[in-house]
């Protein structure tokens, strides 16, 4: 097996895009422009954010906040992955599950995770559990819908061929349904992970005392504008990295997709 090295040219355009974004940010922040309804008078410059980020890296607060946020995200995401994949496989495959489980889930799906925060505080005696529940709700529906669409998109001729060859229902499920729906499931997991971070930050701003979201909100109340951007960028990097990690594991778990390419 040959090891494929990353193509250096593939990093050129993203690098140029990031540099251009930082340069535009620097120009807008240092010039204190007023663009109609938008003003950059209080926006911190990239240098100020860089200095604030270095201070946070040297502070014990980083690991403290980061540890709480990572635990909440991955606990909620793991529960959502198990529930979303199991429900999605059942709804996508069995008519009785679609008729009984999908209607109440469709009613709950449009409700934003933020709206669950007051109820979660009432339902769970621990604020920690309530924040994990918010991340669970945020990740559940992207995973659920992606799994359903993945199962529904499987060619019925594949299932019929497996049955004609003598495969029993469980073998059809494990060797046809699951592999066929796996790409959509991985996509749903990656989207759900990003939604987890979005919901976690909102929950930590309202109910938390520790975490990256709480750090960002605390920086706003203390008017440490550079620290606000540090928290935002840290959330973005963590969300992007965790979603990329899921896609990487998905490619490793689906070697047949690489072979087909």
Automatic annotation (TrEMBL):
<dbReference type="InterPro" id="IPR035906">
    <property type="entry name" value="MetI-like_sf"/>
</dbReference>
<dbReference type="Pfam" id="PF00528">
    <property type="entry name" value="BPD_transp_1"/>
</dbReference>
<keyword id="KW-0472">Membrane</keyword>
<feature type="transmembrane region" description="Helical">
    <location>
        <begin position="225"/>
        <end position="246"/>
    </location>
</feature>
<feature type="transmembrane region" description="Helical">
    <location>
        <begin position="9"/>
        <end position="28"/>
    </location>
</feature>
<feature type="transmembrane region" description="Helical">
    <location>
        <begin position="70"/>
        <end position="95"/>
    </location>
</feature>
<dbReference type="InterPro" id="IPR000515">
    <property type="entry name" value="MetI-like"/>
</dbReference>
<keyword id="KW-0812">Transmembrane</keyword>
<keyword id="KW-0813">Transport</keyword>
<keyword id="KW-1003">Cell membrane</keyword>
<comment type="similarity">
    <text>Belongs to the binding-protein-dependent transport system permease family.</text>
</comment>
<feature type="transmembrane region" description="Helical">
    <location>
        <begin position="172"/>
        <end position="205"/>
    </location>
</feature>
<feature type="transmembrane region" description="Helical">
    <location>
        <begin position="107"/>
        <end position="125"/>
    </location>
</feature>
<feature type="domain" description="ABC transmembrane type-1">
    <location>
        <begin position="66"/>
        <end position="246"/>
    </location>
</feature>
<protein>
    <submittedName>
        <fullName>ABC transporter permease</fullName>
    </submittedName>
</protein>
<keyword id="KW-1133">Transmembrane helix</keyword>
<feature type="transmembrane region" description="Helical">
    <location>
        <begin position="131"/>
        <end position="151"/>
    </location>
</feature>
